[in-house]
Amino acid sequence: MALRGLFPDVPFVSLERFIDTTVLDAIHEEVCLALTHVSVDYTGGSHRSMGIMPPSRTSEAHVDYGEVIRGLSAEDFETFRSLADDPRSIDLARRSELEFGEEREHALSRRQMLWLKVRHKVYFPWKAYVELIPNRYWGDKSSAEGKDFTRLAKTFFPKTIAFARSLPFLHVGRCNVMGLEANDHGTVHRDGDPKEQTEPDHFITVCPAGDKRLFLWDEDRREKTPVPGRAYWFNDHDYHGVDADPFFRYSIRVDGVFRPDFLETLRSESRRVES
User: Fold this and answer.
1) CB atoms < 10 A from the CB of 220, how many?
2) Which of 75, 105, 231, 242 is such that its CA lies 20 to 30 A from the CA of 205?
3) Quick one: which H or E segment has residue 75?
């Protein structure tokens, strides 16, 4: 459970020297205005039941919706079912076999998430989540096949889209805005099992306001590694989280496949720094 990092002795890479950050102030203004016009979803909320949190920090998930749904009474489960976008798709006779939420057979509707929050005290860390390029499953995030930016994204996030398309990817497969409300923290978790990873997934995170306090977590040492700046890449199979602050903050994540020359530049830079 120690940090694996991107390259030997490189836990993350600051990308501000490698991409054009001069547009981030304009993107910040665009995102802040756009979030007043578009509907936002929640994400997170089941990291403990998914088994992707470090043992030392599982209590920080507070109330987990995976655990709540499993423990609902028959009456409450019927209420939960009625709030789905398509209640008929939830077979009551198969309740014990069904899985709900992120990366599951039945995605949560907005109404289900709100009910879980207000009735059952579920903690959703990211309460301003907007998919500019939707993805059904996590494993599809680097593929661009059959995908495009949504109509709403093209209407309200044109500068953000132009920026994402300008990044050093062969193609972009996923793009989203992830915001945390004041005083909320991003629960420490990892996005995959390091034992199953051949190389770090390719993505770029930008924080136009530079005020989101992301950190990597070394479970063996019980130690944080802050990831500062407005643009960075890290190994998301390492544990990571976001510290709480008394104000709203957000980041934009763009997934895809890096151009080979860009990836080699980052590797060369890491070797140079190491030597």
Assistant:
1) 9
2) 105
3) helix 74-82
Strand arrangement, sheet containing 214-218:
186-189, 239-242, 214-218, 223-227
**What is residue 270's predicted lDDT score, i.e. its pLDDT?**
78
Q: What is the dihedral of CA 71, 41, 28, 145, to 10 degrees?
A: 110
Between CA 135 and CA 55 the distance in angstroms is 29
Q: b/e for 185-204, b at 16 or more Cβ within 10 A?
A: bbbbbbbbeeeebeebbbbb
Max Cα separation, the chain?
64
* Residue type (1 letter), 89: S
Q: Rounded to whole angstroms, how far apart are CA atoms 16 and 22? A: 10
pLDDT tens per residue across span 185-234: 999 999 999 999 999 999 999 999 999 999 999 999 999 999 999 999 99
Give me the percent of the chain exceeding a pLDDT of 70: 98
Sign of CA dihedral 150, 154, 158, 163: positive
Tens of pLDDT, residue by residue over 250-273, are 999 999 999 999 999 999 887 665
To the nearest 10 degrees (0 to 180), the angle between helices 110-120 and 74-82 is 140
For the segment 68-97, the average pLDDT, to the nearest whole number, is 96
pTM: 0.94
Q: Give SS3 for 109.
A: coil
Six-digit token string for 54: 């470090």
Report the alpha-carbon distance of residue 218 to residue 145 in Å, rounded.
Answer: 35
3-state DSSP assignment of residue 81: helix
